[in-house]
UniProtKB/TrEMBL annotation:
Record-linked PANTHER family: BLR4509 PROTEIN (PTHR30521:SF5), DEFERROCHELATASE/PEROXIDASE (PTHR30521)
Sequence similarity: Belongs to the DyP-type peroxidase family.
Acetylation in keyword set: no
Domain of life of the organism encoding this protein: Bacteria
Signal peptide: none
PROSITE patterns for this protein: DYP_PEROXIDASE
Cofactor: heme b
Organism: Nonomuraea thailandensis
Protein's name in the database: Dyp-type peroxidase family
Length: 450
């Protein structure tokens, strides 16, 4: 394969054609998708599977061909690399967080109580998840075509078992189970040929997202060895999140006196209106035209437009997880992630405030070159604590695990409002840390010998 390189900053060359297309590409809109977890019971079978999978996995994304707007990605847990027979010296070169796995680090990232690993859906956290396949496409036809080779490969390989499968799709409303447009933000990554969604965001160094290139510190991120294995790879935190939509609606209704107030309170907690229009640009009312315009719906900064949070509260979900240029403790650019959420399960019918028992929520994939500095930092410091914005003890109103005792501050004039007794609106059903290798690394893994 010819590796096509593009020029990043300071003469850095990015080998885009060696990076899995499905790893970093923004999610299509609309979308359908599938996640499949595999267990490798025999390393020779696992390597055989990889050799058969290789034709289904493409690299490069500098230009988008609508007729091929579907991507298959393959990733491995630490236990999966062990099951494939990767040499111990290479296994030991991976970062501690990846080697330990998400379940072992649950308390650090706030997966406690009903979200603790003891309550996770099998096979999450059991050590049996070895290979994670994912595919996203704008429609079922292209999804099935993209997955055809992969499906034949894992179905016809003895010694490899399918142990979990999850279908995802955009809901008929085009929004999340909570009723909000998502998939709006994507970082501007230097040298990749993928434009960011915020024209005001200065490009981030490729090493924040891809191994083998300088990151925002000017250094190379720690990379597993040999270089053939690590270069052009990245890490993905994969999580299944159940959403308590009925509890969300009940809380909004109990703390407002009209439907209009419900919508405003929900927007203050999220940071956007249901249409996707940001509060920072439209503080008084929803603006569906703004929300639907990809040229404008992410075109803002906080310090410039709303540094004190009177429009979008400092504790709102989107502002916590991506503070942009807001005045905070720390440097937001050091903790940027690619976030890709996809919905599963049926929507709760409009107006229903009692739980119907259905499993619904999102499969979240959080991608970056530094598990601890990016995903774990955001979860521990920004989602589950408020020190960085001056509200110690307050958690993310949407993603925090409140247990009925949470609170959130909404700046208002003349007196700020403080919501009390927040329940948890989401429950972690499982998670895994995965390594997403480059295409040459996939070949290296497939060609390992005992």
């Amino acid at each position: 394969m010819n590796v096509v390189a593009s020029t990043g900053g300071a003469g850095v060359r990015i080998e885009v054609d060696d990076i899995q297309s499905g790893a970093l590409h923004p999610r299509p809109m609309p979308y359908v998708g599938r996640f499949v977890f595999l267990r490798v019971d025999d390393r020779h079978a696992g390597r055989s599977l990889l050799r058969r999978l290789l034709p289904a996995v493409e690299g490069g994304f500098a230009s988008v061909d609508p007729s091929r707007d579907a991507w298959v990605a393959v990733a491995f847990t630490y236990q999966g690399l062990r099951a494939l027979g990767v040499p111990q010296e290479s296994l030991d070169s991976f970062p501690l967080a990846f080697r330990q796995g998400m379940a072992a680090r649950a308390a650090l990232i706030g997966d406690v109580g009903e979200s603790a690993p003891d309550h996770w859906e099998p096979p999450f956290g059991t050590g049996e998840v070895h290979i994670a396949l994912s595919a996203l496409s704008p429609d079922v036809g292209r999804l099935e075509k993209a997955l055809e080779r992969a499906r034949v490969a894992y179905q016809d390989t003895p010694g490899v078992q399918v142990i979990w499968r999850q279908e995802v799709r955009q809901l008929p409303t085009g929004r999340t189970t909570f009723g909000f447009r998502d998939g709006i933000s994507h970082p501007n990554i230097e040298g990749l040929g993928l434009p960011g969604s915020n024209p005001r965001e200065a490009p981030l160094k490729a090493g924040e997202f891809i191994l083998g290139y300088p990151d925002e510190t000017g250094n190379l991120p720690p990379m597993p060895s040999p270089d053939m294995l690590g270069r052009n790879g990245t890490y993905a935190a994969v999580r299944k999140i159940h959403t308590k939509v009925a509890a969300w609606r009940r809380y909004l209704r109990a703390n407002t006196s009209s439907a209009q107030e419900e919508t405003l309170l929900a927007a203050k907690m999220v940071g956007r209106w249901p249409s996707g229009a940001p509060l920072t640009l439209s503080p008084e009312r929803d603006d569906p035209e703004l929300g639907a315009d990809p040229r404008r719906n992410n075109d803002f900064l906080y310090r410039e437009h709303d540094d004190r949070g009177f429009r979008c509260p400092a504790g709102a979900h989107i502002r916590r997880t991506n503070p942009r240029d807001a005045t905070i403790i720390g440097d937001a650019r050091m903790h940027r992630l690619i976030r890709r959420g996809t919905s599963y399960g049926p929507p709760l019918p409009g107006g229903v405030v009692e739980d119907d028992g259905a499993d619904r929520g999102l499969i979240g994939v959080f991608i970056g070159a530094h598990i601890e500095r990016q995903f774990e930092f955001i979860k521990a410091e920004w989602v589950n604590d408020g020190n960085f914005i001056g509200f110690p003890g307050e958690q993310d109103p949407i993603a925090g695990h409140h247990g009925g005792t949470g609170s959130v501050t909404i700046p208002e004039q003349p007196i700020r409002r403080r919501l009390q007794n927040l329940p948890s609106f989401v429950v972690t059903r499982g998670g895994e840390y995965c390594f997403v290798p480059g295409l040459r690394a996939l070949r290296w893994l497939a060609e390992q010998e005992d």
